[in-house]
Amino acid sequence: MIAHGKTIKYGNHIDTDVIIPARYLATQDHKELASHCMEDIDKSFIGRVKDGDIMVAGVNFGCGSSREHAPIAIKASGISCVIAKSFARIFYRNSINIGLAILECEEASDKIDEGDEVKIDFDTGIITNVTKGESYQAQPFPDFIKDMISKGGLMASIKTN
């Protein structure tokens, strides 16, 4: 599995209320959730995100409530992967469950800048910053998690087995 795109970068402690504000939780429509993704912290996000883009953040990404809406909104917006120094535990698991690829890599989080072109090899965990000519090593997912993500999440992978 490979991801390749431009980066959109955020800081530390980006909570689920910022990722998808509570006022939009009444809908289960993924496109509707995506249309409001990050709007309270970055009104330009939805207008500039492109399919395949990669989100980069600092520590404790996805902290706050345990809502699955947050990773759904990110994935539905077109983001192919989120790279952060660390993730809130429930957000991490919800991301895997819905098929959003996420990687923890402190060096990548520190060195990747907004707008850098990045390529990710999920089999090796190597994150290549094409813009800067640098590579960073993240822990690759075990095969069963890669399979789950490639099939679109936990429930999708169960249906295909």
Could you explain the architecture of this structure?
With 161 residues, the protein is an alpha/beta fold. It is built from 8 helices and 7 strands, in the order βαααβαβαβαβββαα. It has a 7-stranded mixed β-sheet. It is globular, with a radius of gyration of 14 Å. The two termini are 19 Å apart. 36% of the residues are buried. The model has no long low-confidence stretch (mean pLDDT 93).
- Our estimate of the beta-strand percent is 15-25%
Quaternary structure classification: single chain
Helix/strand structural class: alpha/beta
User: If helices are DSSP runs of H or I spanning 4 or more residues, what is the number of helices?
Assistant: 8
The strand line-up of the biggest sheet is 4-3-2-1-5-6-7
Please render the helix and strand layout as text.
Elements lengths: L1 E8 L6 H4 L10 H5 L10 H4 L5 E3 L12 H9 L3 E4 L4 H10 L2 E4 L1 H6 L5 E5 L4 E4 L4 E4 L5 H8 L3 H6 L2
Parallel strand pairs: 1-2, 2-3, 3-4
Antiparallel strand pairs: 1-5, 5-6, 6-7
Entry keywords:
single chain, 161 residues, globular, alpha/beta, seven-stranded mixed sheet
